[in-house]
Amino acid sequence: MLRLLSDENFNGDIVRGLFLRQPDLDLLRVQDVGLRKVDDPAILDWAASNGRILLTHDRATMPDFAYERLSQGQQMSGLFVINDRMPVSRPGTWPITMVLRKTLSVNFVVSSRRNAAKQP
Hints:
This protein is of the alpha/beta class and 120 residues long. The protein has helices at residues 12-21, 40-49, 62-71, 96-101, 103-106, 108-118; strands at residues 3-6, 26-29, 53-56, 79-81. It contains six helices and four strands, in the order E-H-E-H-E-H-E-H-H-H. Strands 2-1-3-4 form a four-stranded parallel β-sheet, with helices on one face. Strand 3 (53-56), helix 3 (62-71) and strand 4 form a beta-alpha-beta unit. Helix 3 crosses helix 6 (108-118). The protein is globular, with a radius of gyration of 14 Å.
């Protein structure tokens, strides 16, 4: 099962919806583990050290910090940058829970950045 960590400003409605659809979901919030008001690199470090994939809405800075970790050869479990208005399920779309079940999808951001970092 995927082990997840949601960023401080991650939409609580999405978190609640995920738990309603999958009660056994292994998801912690940064607030639950004492990381409130901690900077992005420290959150990524904690997630990596604890084998958790980070869920965030922060597309402005978090992908860059994740890329920086990878380019420095640091461990990273993964990163999902999710639209903050994305419904848990909407007719004609894949609900977030289905996306999270697709383990290969977890690595789409990390893998592309990792491959780009390896290019000469």
